[in-house]
């Protein structure tokens, strides 16, 4: 099946490009490869029949989160070579976890673990979940969670602004309150001579 | 589900999850790498949710994907803001030197 082949291709591309995200040297390249991973994941979502989720991932991750990471990486001006990787202490843990996970993946690849799921799967009606269904469930059953996620985003926005806002000394700013409260005594009307200037100098 | 076996989706998402977890362990001193690895892990979890909700034709998996997306965006925004103010204070973002709270 062509969609199955494409699915495997996108999945392999996602896995391959997630390796430089984790093990590469340049953080900027890592952020760009993360964008590529998310593009491939969006393609996989489209092949699964979840187009709206795919578009959401493109907009939120590629448009917002990745750009945020790139902005911070450019703002910080860190020397990459300063940050040393000392993985000697964690190497046994990494190897143990890696072996366990590789065994899990091998079990998955043999297809014995998931066979019960695919047998139980309702293949009778392969209808695609539309955006209407998502909206219907999201605004009725999951309305409190929807509101809460809005609150989370608001708190995150205000928190990020409050954290990074700073008032530097020596920067001239407009103080509207002082301007409005200033009376007429703060203004001095002068009539300088033409060509002489305020001090009367030639 | 358009002819795609769920094993494939679970294979890819768990492989991505493993790469993310190993990335956190591998880059213990580089906080930006850790944040990127967390994004990979959240993507893997979302892939699982989407796969099984299309398999069982249940919409709730999609809703949880949205919630994960929201939390991931908020988390990266706050984390990077904290990173910026820490960099202003100390001119470094190395995790091993972040010992101010030890007193």
Which labels suit this protein?
heterodimer; A: 202 residues; mainly alpha; 8 helices; 0% strand; B: 103 residues; elongated
Give a summary of the structure in a few sentences.
The complex is a heterodimer of chains A (202) and B (103). Chain A is 66% helix and 0% strand.
Describe the model:
The complex is a heterodimer of chains A (202) and B (103). With 202 residues, chain A is mostly helical. Chain A has eight helices and no strands. Chain A has helices at residues 2-23, 27-48, 51-76, 91-110, 115-120, 131-140, 143-164, 176-181. In chain A, α1 packs antiparallel against α2 (27-48) and α2 packs antiparallel against α3. The longest helix of chain A is centred in the N-terminal third of the chain and has 26 residues, at 51-76. Chain A is elongated, with a radius of gyration of 29 Å. In chain B, α1 (6-26) runs antiparallel to α2 and α2 packs antiparallel against α3. With 103 residues, chain B is mainly alpha-helical. The interface between A and B is large, with 89 and 72 residues.
Spans of chain B of at least 5 consecutive residues whose pLDDT stays below 50 are none
Strand tally of chain B: 0
- Estimated helix fraction of chain A: 55-70%
State mean pLDDT of chain A (0 to 100 scale): 81
The secondary structure category of chain B is mainly alpha
The N- and C-terminal alpha carbons of chain B lie at a distance of: 55 Å
Strand content of chain A: under 5%
Which protein chains make the most extensive interface, counting residues with beta carbons within 8 Å of the other chain's beta carbons?
A: A-B, 89 and 72 residues
Q: Over the alpha carbons, how many angstroms does the gyration radius of chain A reach? A: 29 Å
Number of helices of chain B: 3
In what range is the share of β-strand residues of chain B? Answer: under 5%
**SSE arrangement of chain B, N to C:** HHH
Task: Give a short account of the largest sheet of chain B.
Answer: none
User: Could you list the spans of chain A in which at least 5 consecutive residues all have pLDDT below 50?
Assistant: none
Instruction: Spell the H/E element sequence of chain A.
Output: HHHHHHHH
Instruction: Give the overall shape of chain B, derived from the CA principal axes.
Output: elongated
Mean pLDDT of chain B: 85
Radius of gyration of chain B equals: 17 Å
The shape of chain A, in one word, is: elongated
Helix fraction of chain B, binned, reads: over 70%
Class computed from helices, strands and strand pairing of chain A: mainly alpha
């Amino acid at each position: 099946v062509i969609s199955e082949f494409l699915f495997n291709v996108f999945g392999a591309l996602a896995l391959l490009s997630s390796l430089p995200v984790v093990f590469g040297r340049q953080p900027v390249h890592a952020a760009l490869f993360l964008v590529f991973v998310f593009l491939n994941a969006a393609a996989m979502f489209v092949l699964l029949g979840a187009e709206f989720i795919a578009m959401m991932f493109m907009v939120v991750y590629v448009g917002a989160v990745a750009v945020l990471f790139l902005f911070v990486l450019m703002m910080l001006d860190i020397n990459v070579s300063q940050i040393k990787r000392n993985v000697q202490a964690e190497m046994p843990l990494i190897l143990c976890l890696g072996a366990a996970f590789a065994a899990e993946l091998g079990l998955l690849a043999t297809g014995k673990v998931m066979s019960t799921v695919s047998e139980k799967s309702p293949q009778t009606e392969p209808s695609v979940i539309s955006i209407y269904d998502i909206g219907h469930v999201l605004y009725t059953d999951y309305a409190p969670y929807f509101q809460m996620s809005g609150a989370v985003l608001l708190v995150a926005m205000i928190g990020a602004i409050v954290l990074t806002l700073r008032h530097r000394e020596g920067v001239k700013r407009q103080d509207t309150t002082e301007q409005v409260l200033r009376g007429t005594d703060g203004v001095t009307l002068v009539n300088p001579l033409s060509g002489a200037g305020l001090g009367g100098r030639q | 589900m358009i002819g795609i076996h769920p094993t494939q989706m679970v294979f890819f998402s768990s492989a991505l999850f493993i790469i993310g977890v190993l990335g956190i362990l591998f880059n213990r001193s580089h906080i930006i790498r850790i944040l990127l690895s967390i994004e990979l892990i959240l993507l893997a979890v979302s892939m699982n949710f989407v796969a099984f909700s299309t398999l069982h034709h249940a919409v709730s998996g999609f809703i949880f994907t949205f919630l994960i997306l929201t939390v991931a965006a908020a988390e990266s925004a706050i984390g990077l803001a904290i990173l910026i103010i820490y960099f202003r204070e100390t001119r470094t973002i190395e995790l091993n030197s972040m010992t101010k709270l030890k007193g």
